[in-house]
Structure formats: structure tokens, C-alpha cells
Amino acid sequence: MFMAVGRPAMGETAVHVIEDAMTHEEAAKKAALEILEEQHEDWNDNIYIDVVTDQHFEYKTDFVFAIEDLKA
Asked: Highest taxon of the source (predicted)?
């Protein structure tokens, strides 16, 4: 299980719990997809995941996802 802290560009930060990921990178992408689902369909800016941590408190920081990559 992972916890990700992220936000859309110029948006509010939120915490997302990701239970079905195997890596920090996969959890970051799943959190970005959850954030994307919350945006208006015309949203076209980056999504930032500031930190992803696992149950052992190992963490990775500074993920940036372009909308084109998430919608592919």
C-alpha cells in the first residue's frame, strides 16, 4: 500500500491511498490518474505528485505527469 500526495497544476493538494501498486512509480501514476478523473474533461495541464511513501516509510518525490501521457 502506498500514500501519494499530489495536485493538479495550480490546484489543491490531496492525499491518495493506492492499494494495488507494486512500485512507487506505479503508485504515483495511479494517483495522477485519480486526480485526472476529478478534473474537468478539458483540463490540459500537468499533474504533480509531490511524494509517494510505502508502509515502510520509504519514499520517492517529484513526479510530473503530462496529460497526454496519462490519457494514452
From this structure: Bacteria
- Residue 29 Cα distances to 16, 26, 48, 65, 66, angstroms: 11, 5, 10, 8, 11
The torsion angle over the Cα atoms of residues 44, 2, 57 and 28, rounded to 10 degrees, is: -20
Domain containing residue 54: 2-24+33-71
Closest to 45 (Cα-Cα) out of 53, 33, 36, 57: 36
Pairing verdict, β 14-18 and 47-54: unpaired
| Separation between Cα atoms, residue 51 and residue 53, nearest integer Å | 7
For the chain, the domain total comes to 1
SS3 state at 55: coil
